[in-house]
Specification:
single chain; 100 residues
Length: 100
């Protein structure tokens, strides 16, 4: 994980998950609030793919985001990985920290 952007390893809890998309499904946005201890992190991510993979993140015991730079994938620059009993991932075009 050389290009680590965020890492939540101390029993993170997803306290908020909001997913919005345009009617034609060409653009989407995911807003997450992750609590780790007393710290809250608010993230906004654009175009999560595959979208159906995002909902299992609420059960994750570990979450990390890596900047994959110029990959050969046709979508997504950032890989959002998470695990509990199994590993899952989805890709997003951008990740932004939101203020409290």
């Amino acid at each position: 994980m050389e290009n680590l952007v965020h890492s939540f390893t101390a029993s993170p809890v997803v306290t908020q998950l909001q997913f919005d998309q345009t009617p034609d499904r060409t653009q989407s946005e995911l807003a997450l609030t992750i609590q780790e201890g007393d710290a809250l992190t608010h993230l906004r991510m654009r175009n999560p793919t595959p979208a159906e993979a995002i909902f299992d993140i609420v059960d994750a015991s570990r979450i990390w985001i890596e900047d994959e730079g110029s990959t050969q994938k046709e979508f997504g620059r950032y890989k959002v990985g998470y695990s509990d009993e199994a590993y899952s991932e989805f890709w997003v075009d951008s990740v932004e920290n939101e203020p409290d």
